[in-house]
Design a protein that fits this description.
elongated; alpha+beta; RNaseH_sf; 21 strands; single chain; RNaseH-like_sf; 6-stranded mixed β-sheet; 19 helices; Integrase_cat-core
Length: about 675
């Protein structure tokens, strides 16, 4: 009834302490009030009567002091500043539970502790709960401690940023499904980062597993080949919400997208090969920071040009700078030594996605779908005569597209010039950058400007980093001339430093010309980098040499432009500025007329019946001649295509040689087999 047992202590009326030494059903033995007194024997009923009459009172056990963990102490110290501010505001006559008091407390805390302006404050009701607990405990700090935990439940800004950066990178470049391996790697990096920034803490494995598991779950669903486009778009949107960035150029995704679309060359009026675009999107702002038009297959030159365009800006596309990390495909154009060397020179982190996992780049994949539907299939194109179309009629649907009925090849329906297509891209992108994005609620232009103000970073233009793009070797070795000049792609480069280098490399009494290595950028022929290793030295010398003709050009000029050859890949820069309120509308002069383009006649001309009679050929001879002519039908001697250097995309097939290299132009006028055979001989067959 009274809850006592052997060992229970009692306070006596005289101030002494007695303890139960032994106890039976009828009696109790108590110790003396001090060491000098003897033990006391009491009847059980007398003992309980003394307790009832409060002659002796049971002593409650003294609670051991609360030992707070390191995290509990940090949590309590974070909240004590709010309690001190609350106490000051309440002493001024404000009620502690009103909204006005809460706002005054937050204002006072931010004034006294400016570092809290960058963190999330406790809510109104939460702060009232802390205040009640603090007052009830007679203003004890321990009352503000949270439940006993070893790590934070709410991550700090630095911890959240580090965790997001690691998970985003690990998700994009890895394909393992064992999360504990990811967590082990995360702990190593987090502890290393915590040395430089003590605000970074290691999160629990449970938190890490939940964050990464959400991404892997969506990625697994996106790999289902039976998904509809609507379901895929929904999952991509869900994936984008889980990949967090905090400022512009923190994460940039690159991709190459192909279209069944051919254009008309403005100069030669020749139909180009099917086009593709190299695109780069800034994840934080959703701004498109690089667009490159390409007329061939995926290649490293196009990727280099795409990366170079990230550092350039125009009036229509004013976004540029050095990204912290770039997310790339694992294709041959992206994964090669040139791209890695460039990224190392620029101090940019490369994240390669596993093969056949486009969902690892959800932002650029989502934009590709939107671009195809909104731009290529949704732009209002109107000619000067009033003719208009919605979308490009020359865009041929893929065979896998639902309801695809177009059977003609893209080259047969091409009706838009290259310059008009560039204007189409600029018009769409200006409208895109100044329209609120459904995911962010703000325009990419607004987010870009706000990020530059809130998170200022060093700005890098192309002129600041152009030397880093000298990554491609012209040839194994090049000769350095006595006048300090070298040749690269039919251009001559020289400098005073090269003349000094010639003297260092030229051995006394040696008649051989010194050998150097020349590194260049296809799209900037104003200068190259020359490297050499002097005799007896272990240090390589690098010298920048200028083009003697165009080194003072304010804008980059490509080697192809100087050599009068067509570019395989080019930027979409145009003259003039697109007005902001144009909308997704393009006005052109006219559509290029579609004409029937017949295949050229192939092989020598077949002799007529009259020609065979004049030659006096018998039946067997006519049959033999007919067989020889039929076997030559694959030789094109009638067509006369434009020269190779004037045709877009011609540089991709360097190993293919036209039959015109074998047969002279006058061969095409031969109308009989005998003339052709007499001209070239039978061995030509």
């Amino acid at each position: 009834m009274f809850g006592y047992t052997v060992g229970t202590e009692f306070n006596t009326q005289s101030g002494g302490i007695q303890q139960i030494l032994a106890m039976t059903a009828n009696s109790v033995i108590l110790s003396g009030e001090n060491s000098a007194e003897t033990e006391v024997y009491l009847d059980r009923k007398v003992f309980e009567k003394n307790i009832s009459e409060k002659r002796i009172e049971m002593r409650l056990p003294i609670a051991a002091p609360i030992e707070l963990t390191k995290y509990q102490k940090e949590f309590a110290s974070d909240k004590i500043k709010y309690m001190h501010a609350m106490q000051e505001v309440v002493e001024q006559g404000n009620k502690p539970t009103t909204r006005i008091t809460y706002l005054k407390v937050i204002e006072l805390v931010e004034t006294l502790h400016p570092e809290t302006m960058c963190s999330k404050h406790p809510g109104w009701k939460t702060l009232c709960k802390y205040w009640k607990r603090f007052v009830s405990s007679d203003y004890e700090l321990e009352a503000l401690a949270c439940k006993k935990r070893d790590c934070r439940t709410r991550l700090s800004v630095a911890t959240e940023a580090h965790l997001s950066a690691f998970i985003n990178t690990a998700f994009s470049n890895s394909n393992s499904n064992i999360i504990k391996n990811y967590y082990r790697s995360y702990i190593r990096k987090a502890k290393k980062a915590a040395i430089e920034n003590d605000e970074i803490k290691v999160v629990s494995q449970r938190t890490f597993r939940r964050r990464l598991g959400q991404l892997n779950e969506v990625s697994l669903k996106l790999n289902n080949p039976n998904l509809t486009q609507k379901e895929r778009n929904r999952l991509l949107l869900s994936l984008q919400k889980k990949i967090k960035t905090h400022f512009a150029l923190q994460r940039v995704e690159l991709d190459r997208v192909c279209f069944n679309l051919c254009l008309i060359d403005d100069d030669t009026q020749v139909v180009t090969p099917s086009i593709s675009l190299y695109l780069a999107i800034d994840v934080y702002t959703r701004a498109i920071i690089s667009v490159v038009l390409d007329f061939g297959s995926e290649n490293k030159i196009g990727v280099l040009n795409s990366l170079r365009n990230i550092f350039t800006s125009t009036d229509n596309l004013p976004f540029s700078g050095r990204p912290e990390s770039i997310v790339l495909d694992n294709g041959p154009g992206y994964n090669n030594t040139l791209i890695k060397k460039l990224a190392e020179s620029l101090s940019v982190n490369i994240v390669y996605c596993p093969s056949n996992h486009p969902e690892k780049k959800p932002f650029i994949e989502s934009f590709n779908n939107n671009f195809r539907n909104s731009c290529l299939k949704g732009t209002h194109i109107e000619t000067a005569s009033g003719e208009f179309t919605i979308g490009l009629n020359s865009l041929v649907a893929k065979r896998t597209d639902k309801g695809a009925s177009q059977t003609k090849p893209p080259k047969d329906v091409a009706n838009l010039t290259v310059n008009d297509f560039k204007r189409l891209l600029n018009t769409y992108l200006v409208d895109y950058h100044n329209t609120p994005h459904p995911s962010t609620g703000k325009t990419p232009s607004e987010l870009w400007k706000a990020s530059l103000i809130n998170t200022p970073r060093d700005h890098y233009s192309y002129d600041d980093v152009k030397k880093a793009f000298h990554v491609e070797l012209f040839q194994d070795t090049s000769k350095l001339q006595p006048n300090g000049s070298v040749r690269c792609n039919k251009q001559v480069f020289e400098s005073a430093e090269l003349r000094e280098l010639y003297g260092k490399l030229k051995e006394f009494g040696c008649n051989e010309t010194p050998q150097v290595k020349v590194y260049f950028d296809h799209f900037d022929a104003r200068q190259v980098t020359v490297t050499a290793m002097p005799y007896g030295s272990h240090k390589q010398i690098e010298v920048v040499a200028r083009n003697i003709e165009v080194h003072d050009s304010p804008e980059p000029i490509s080697f192809n432009e100087l050599n009068k050859t067509a570019n395989i890949t080019e930027s979409i820069d145009i003259e003039g500025v697109i007005p902001l309120n144009t909308g997704n509308v393009l006005k052109i002069e006219q559509f290029y007329p579609i004409s029937k383009r017949r295949s050229p006649k192939r092989g020598p001309a077949t002799p007529s019946y009259e020609d065979n009679n004049k030659a006096g050929l018998m039946t067997q001879a006519r049959i033999q001649k007919s067989h020889k002519i039929t076997s030559m039908q694959h030789v094109d001697v009638k067509s006369n295509p434009p020269p190779q250097e004037a045709t877009r995309g011609a540089g991709l097939n360097e190993n293919v040689r036209n039959v015109h290299e074998t047969f002279e132009e006058d061969d095409v006028i031969h109308s009989s087999f005998d003339e052709f055979e007499n001209k070239h001989g039978k061995d030509k067959w």
